[in-house]
Amino acid sequence: MAVARKSLVGMEETLAIIWRMLKDDKVGVIGIIGRAGAGKTALMKQIQARVDQEPESLNFDEVIWVRVSFNENEKTQKSILDSLGLSFSDNYSYQTRAAYISKALSRKRYLLFLDEVLEPFDFGEIGIPYPDPENKCKVILATQDMDVARKMRSSSLLDFEWLSTEESWELFLKNAGWREEQLPEERRYVAERIVKMCRGLPLALATVGRAMADKTTMEEWEQAALDLDYLERRNKDKMDTNLFYHLKFCYDSLKDDTLRSCFCYFSLFPPDYSIRKDKLVHYWISEGILDSNNYDDFDAVFKLGIDTIEALKAACLMESGEFEDSQVKMLGVVHQIALSETAESIDFSKKMEKLLVRAGSGFTEIPCFGEGKEEVQRLSLMENNIEALVSKLPTFPNLLTLMLQQNRKLYYISNVFLDSLPATLRVLDLSHTRIEELPPSVGSLIGLRHLGLSHTSIVALPVELERLVRLKHLDLENTVYLRVIPRQMISKLRDLQVLNLYQSYGDWEVEGCGVAFEELECLERLSILGVTISTKPALERFVRSHTLPKPAWRICIKDCKGFTSMKLPSMFGSMKNLRELCISECYHLEESRIGGESEGEQNWSLPKLEKLSFWKLPKLRIIHEGVVAAESFQNLCEIQIEKCPELKKFPGIVQLQSLGKEIKLQWKKKIN
């Protein structure tokens, strides 16, 4: 059954049609078909929002959103498992994960959103029980290809046509910030020309409308119409959707080169790749796109980075990622603009230059790139299947950035490989790999500013790291096997602004082997600190420090013996920049308190805390409420509790919610 879309501006009729389908037990799979920029994802997000607002109307046990990767069913499985809150090992086979998914979903009535389905796949192979009248489950999939929807046995199809002239006009004016009755006649004529060139594409109308909102004079509007006309004629063969030149116009309309450079940087990542906002900003800072040397306060340049992300989102050139509050991504069609611009640039300060992106290409080893690559400055080989880096990297004498993260099979890096990298390299990212050690030759990369080793199996840091005196950012988050950090090594990295050891090394101040907090106190430029603390004396020493509480952004208290009670205000209340706090594997902890014990105990606040986690605390019985100042917990949006079998009472959450705070309380289940 094919149903044409009635209105994209309001979407009321289309939403009503889909809502009736969701209530119809005979309808299992709903296919939404339309070209890039037609509004498929926007429609599905509105459906999801209504389901969230009216959960009792449909009574789904689970609502899952998955962006389907091309020919990457394992990534689809991972997204589903993550959405279900199920832990799993990367060593699990494809079939084992499918069995876990099937077992979990067979007990639930689910609604599954599948965005950007490029090729058909079998639900059963991934582990998804096929929706039928008996289980009353639903799948809504978005695709550009009618055949894909049919091969996936869609029982209902919505074929998106482009917007009518009236709908196009309404959407453009809405994004340009004009009401029809306010629009002067001479400007109306130019606006009609611009709307006509958008050809009914919602994404084009939204992005061009946003760009026009910043143009105030009649001359600017007339020039915009001329620019669009020129771009249309110049790029008419580049994309069959005609979106290319609209997005190019929006890119050109960005207010300065910093915004354009930040936008172009995203071309290093695969299309639709979700990245944490803070990680993206740190890349920009390490690369020098955002120059922290121009700011007295690192928080100011970090805020500039967040504002830059919001500006790019407002221009419709970025959007929220898989985790909406903390991540961003770039649609595939927008990603083509970023790649096009970087390919034509001359210098990174004027966008980006000499970029080579082979992300997600299925390589098992570093390919031979052929001749003419000597001028490459940025190389992205992330999300491949590379297992070992043994030989020399092909000659890239001007290489500044090397992205190797998420090569999940990568277990070995040789001295020869690192020796072949130029000393001018600024960014090296090896995160989300299986490497257990770094060879000593890493010390030869004296120009390195950013070293990413998060989510690796690294056991010890080589002493040669102390030579990286220009290093600004060292990311060791979630390196749970890290046991050895050479003494006096960290204190020699005097330029460090970001040091992330969250869910990592925790043997601070341990006599005979532990690194002393004095080494961190020597880092005068340290502005962001993630730390794991595993002993009670170390925690007390950290809290007493005159310098370390200020840069503390993320703290994990792990395997701390001697605590039966833990009061958050007295321990962490002075840490005004703390964003995330995790209390983990403290096996004697019986109670915790989130507020003060009396009205007089109000000299504390955690105004920036966003996430609070309690994990693997077998004796924890209660999380008390307490006296909470108005400014405390004002940014807290998520509390995670997992493996706390004795926890029966949590009056603290009721208290926080009574203060008008919207807090997501998440209980995760572990696969045995």
Automatic annotation (TrEMBL):
One Pfam family from the UniProt entry? WHD_DRP
Domain of life where this protein originates: Eukaryota
Domain (AAA+ ATPase): give its ranges.
26-164
List keywords of the entry alphabetically. ATP-binding, Nucleotide-binding, Plant defense, Repeat
Which Gene Ontology terms describe the biological processes this protein takes part in?
defense response
Question: In Gene Ontology terms, what is one molecular function of this protein?
Answer: ADP binding
Q: Which family does it belong to?
A: Belongs to the disease resistance NB-LRR family.
Q: What is this protein called?
A: AAA+ ATPase domain-containing protein
